[in-house]
């Protein structure tokens, strides 16, 4: 890998490394984002964050919110596969936002509204219409191990849910299964207002991605839509897509 961009701010060392056409953003040695100008799939955790949207028809996601943009790995597949009318991303780390905008070129190429700020405060203060898909991926750049920056508590879930539409989908990223299993969101209280809950994982990482759906869903619907989408149904894409989905309710 070749380092093509670097910066040190507030005790965090940032690097963008290139391997072929793939650009990867690291903070204190922990990878936070990956971008390839020709590919939608990373073969890792970033695929797990948008995959749950395909449990339902892509056309229903007119307003999409990403909390924790990082370098913007999620934005190309969200734009190409869902093409929402409104795509908003909030990122507290100015260095991550700089990489997303200036190095990866995410904001301009994929028509996403980016905001720098604390995602929790931003959403608590938000007064606009609800979102059909909220992806919550909040990990601190200073963390030398992969763990959430915001505790997964019921009051935070309530804020997320209050800004989700009646047919919406909420996706949350956890550092690993025990981090979710030991959180307040594992119980039935977390299912208030939701009909289905799923866990997604892959062999490339320890992360546990949890998806909460307002409406009933089955994993077979995801598999059928993946097979029907030309951008994801080719031989190379099938080989790169690494995921396991399990219904929790």
TrEMBL record:
Superkingdom assignment: Bacteria
Presence of the UniProt keyword Chaperone in the record: no
Entry annotated with the keyword Zinc-finger: no
The name this protein goes by in its record: Spermidine synthase
Keywords: Polyamine biosynthesis
BP terms from Gene Ontology: polyamine biosynthetic process
């Amino acid at each position: 890998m070749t380092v093509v961009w670097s910066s040190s701010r507030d005790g965090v060392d940032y690097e963008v490394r290139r391997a072929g056409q793939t650009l990867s953003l690291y903070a204190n040695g922990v990878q936070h984002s990956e971008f390839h100008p020709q590919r939608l799939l990373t073969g890792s955790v970033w695929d797990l964050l948008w995959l749950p949207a395909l449990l339902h028809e892509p056309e229903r996601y007119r307003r999409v919110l990403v909390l924790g943009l990082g370098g913007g790995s999620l934005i190309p597949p969200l734009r190409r596969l869902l093409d929402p009318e409104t795509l908003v991303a909030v990122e507290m780390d100015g260095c991550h936002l700089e990489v997303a905008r200036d190095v990866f070129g995410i904001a301009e190429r994929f028509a996403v509204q980016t905001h720098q700020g604390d995602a929790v405060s931003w959403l608590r203060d938000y007064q606009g219409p609800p979102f059909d898909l909220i992806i919550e991926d909040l990990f601190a750049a200073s963390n030398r191990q992969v763990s959430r920056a915001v505790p997964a508590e019921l009051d935070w879930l309530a804020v997320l849910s209050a800004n989700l539409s009646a047919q919406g989908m909420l996706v949350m990223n956890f550092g690993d299964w025990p981090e979710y299993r030991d959180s307040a969101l594992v119980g039935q209280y977390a299912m208030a207002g939701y009909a289905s809950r799923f866990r997604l994982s892959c062999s490339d990482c320890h992360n546990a991605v949890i998806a909460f759906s307002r409406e009933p869903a089955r994993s077979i619907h995801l598999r059928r839509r993946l097979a029907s989408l030309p951008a994801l149904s080719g031989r190379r894409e099938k080989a790169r897509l690494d995921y396991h989905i399990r219904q929790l309710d």
